Amino acid sequence: MQMPVRGVCAHRGAMETHPENTVIAFREAVRAGAHMIEFDVQLTKDNRLVVLHDATVDRTTNGSGKVSELTFDEIRKLDAGSWKSPEFKGLKIPTFEEVLDEMPVNVWLNIHLKGAGETSKMVAEILKKEGRLHQAFLACGADAARQARSVVPEIKICNMDRQGSGIDYVNNTIKMDADFIQLTGKITPEFADYAKALKERGIGINYFGTDIPEEISTLYNYGIDFPLVNNVIQSIHVAKEAGFEPVKPVF
């Protein structure tokens, strides 16, 4: 399967216009032609994998409490859409498996892991079972990466053990044999030097994050592959101007 080389990463789906980390946000990102889709995975109290960014459900649902202290049934009863707009009333927090079912096989899946290493093992094993190893990578620290690799050695990793976006982060990413890196912070000309070193080793380069078209263009000029964006539609146009056509999804 030919995967996108460069383009746009939809941060938590099309979160500018839809409730983040919900099925319809991911559908909209796919419809728009996103090249990579980022989402967050964590465990409930009863060890179900759900897609939610925060440690608590407070901000994006009508409930309260820590995800790790709520059962799946308790979480499933919550409204995960109304906080964004009344038109999204009744949306549910999706499971990891439900989100995978929505994803084409020809976009990158940027899976940010929350919590302990057991999550990384479970996610890695499901990705292998579902035939998604060619397109998915785990954004996590070194410990979670080791645990994931202990059960699925071929799992792709984005190194998230970082203090800023300096040369040490770049060197550590190369040392741990990661597949991706995620730069952040101020956009500087040094990014071009980092990109050269990383690309010599076949490491994909993400950046968190911006919706400013001029900054996205600068990132592409510096060699960054996938800026994480909230405004997917606008950013897809910037990518297209840079020569990166929207993805035509394959299921």
| Percentage of residues in DSSP E strands | 15-25%
Q: What is the annotated CATH architecture of the domain at 9-39 and 99-241? A: Alpha-Beta Barrel
Q: Pairing-aware structural class of the strands and helices?
A: alpha/beta
Order of helices and strands: EHEEHHEHEHEHEHEHEH
Q: What is the number of E strands?
A: 9
Radius of gyration: 17 Å
Query: Given this structure, which CATH class of the domain at 9-39 and 99-241 is correct?
Result: Alpha Beta
The CATH fourth-level homologous superfamily of the domain at 9-39 and 99-241: Phosphatidylinositol (PI) phosphodiesterase
Biggest beta-sheet profile: 8 strands, parallel, barrel
The averaged pLDDT comes out at 98
Q: Which fold name is given in CATH as the topology of the domain at 9-39 and 99-241?
A: TIM Barrel
Strand order of the largest sheet: 1-2-4-5-6-7-8-9
Distance between the termini: 12 Å
- Residue ranges: pLDDT <50 for 5 or more in a row? none
Helix content: 25-40%
Q: In DSSP terms, counting alpha (H) and pi (I) runs of 4 or more, how many helices?
A: 9
Shape: globular
If you had to describe this structure to a student in words, what would you say it looks like?
The chain has 251 residues and is α/β, with parallel strands linked by helices. The chain has a domain at 9-39 and 99-241: TIM Barrel, CATH 3.20.20. The chain is built from nine helices and nine strands. The chain has helices at 23-32, 72-76, 96-102, 117-129, 142-151, 167-175, 190-199, 213-222, 232-241, and strands at 9-11, 36-43, 49-51, 108-113, 136-140, 156-159, 180-184, 204-208, 226-229. An eight-stranded parallel beta barrel has the order 1-2-4-5-6-7-8-9, surrounded by six helices.
